[in-house]
Amino acid sequence: MDIDSRSPHQAITYFNRYTGQQEQEAIYGEAFLRWTYETRLGRIALALAAKRVWFSKWYGWRMDRPASRSKVLPFIETYGLDPDEFRDPPESFRTFNEFFYRKLKPAARPIDPDPQAVVFPADGRQLAIADVSQTDGLWVKGQHMDLPRLLGSPELAERYAGGSLLISRLCPTDYHRFHFPVSGTAGPARQIDGSLSSVSPVALRRRLDILWENKRQLTEIETDHLGTVLMIEVGAACVGGIFQTFAPGPVEKGADKGYFTFGGSMTIVVFEAGRVRLADDLLEHAAEQREVYARMGDRAAMANNP
């Protein structure tokens, strides 16, 4: 996404790593999102209902109803998804949520085998930040990343001062399982309570503080060559939940960590200062305030070994 301060009504674009082209994002529910965040009445509705946890639980319940199954095939057709990647055929999903957090065939997302490589934890539009202290103007002009609030701990934030971030923004049309970006030993996921605002580009252009006000979960991963890596899953409006499927202990890069139920959502990976070299295309487009579309398992960074 071009994340500058231009008109919020402008088309949302990103760079596609695989086609080598800038492309326009098809935003699911765009008309409703623009009404919610760009009109006075919509912002009132947002404050009263849309960002409340009960609203997302209610919407998630709807996506768990058998009647929601009728949405699956039209969704696949409208957004051009490839059923050949699915582990299970589209007809097997009993609800829309079962389709939404579907598993893929292993061959659909090969994992970079280099032991020094960090991989994307999720499909989506990726934004790299080489130094978290240099984020003024990120999505919203004049705002910066509040790391202590994002991590829910000023003490933890001190350990990552000057560190790097990898933000994976998933839209509803993306594969919604998330995976470990590195191998190591994972601790338990810690929940940080909050509201559930949209993390769509329409919303983030208005308010960056959504990232540290939304409900999220944080996992610490001890590694041999990258120090302690943090992985955060951020909930969003209409996300019925963040579900962890891993057991604390040894984990492998690319292994399934969990999934989001219906809605757009986001993961954030945080590295200690000087630990990684982010991929060139990520840095190139980040300098232009632009996201890069890339898939889970592909290379995002390399260990910065001394």
Helix/strand layout:
Elements: E1 13-16, E2 21-24, H1 30-38, H2 40-50, H3 53-63, H4 72-78, H5 96-100, E3 117-119, E4 124-129, H6 147-151, H7 154-159, E5 164-170, E6 177-179, E7 184-186, E8 190-192, H8 201-204, H9 210-213, E9 216-222, E10 228-234, E11 242-244, E12 249-251, E13 256-260, E14 265-271, E15 276-278, H10 280-286, E16 292-294, E17 299-303
Parallel strand pairs: 1-16
Antiparallel strand pairs: 1-2, 3-17, 4-5, 4-16, 5-14, 6-13, 7-9, 7-12, 8-9, 9-10, 10-14, 11-13, 15-17
Helix pairs in contact: 1-2
Concise description?
The chain is built from ten helices and 17 strands. By secondary structure, the protein is of the alpha+beta class.
Question: Could you explain the architecture of this structure?
Answer:
Helices cover 23% and strands 25% of the residues. The strands form 3 sheets. Strands 1, 2, 4, 5, 7, 8, 9, 10, 12, 14 and 16 form an 11-stranded mixed sheet that branches. The protein has 10 helices and 17 strands. The protein has 306 residues and is α+β, with helices and mostly antiparallel strands. The model is unreliable at 1-8, 29-35 and 48-54 (pLDDT under 50). It has a domain at 111-303. Helix 1 packs across helix 2.
